Amino acid sequence: MAQVRIYVVYRAHKTRAWHVSLNGADGESYASELLALHAACERVRVMEKIGNDVTVLQEDAGGV
Fold first, then answer.
1. Nearest 5°: CA angle at 1, between 8 and 23?
2. Which of 9, 36, 43, 49 would be a feasible disulfide site paired with 30, CB 3.0-4.6 Å?
3. Considering the entire predicted model, what is its pTM?
């Protein structure tokens, strides 16, 4: 069983989008926090199904 971290962060770049990444690697951007959280939940389901231990870390729009 591998430890997997899914990060949900708000990128304060030009795009102003929410970003979901797996173990800090490049991931996907979403227009809203809700869409990003849905994507993160789907990744959790997939990763747990194949036997990984998953932790989700989320920051707020202020970067905390």
1. 25
2. 36
3. 0.80
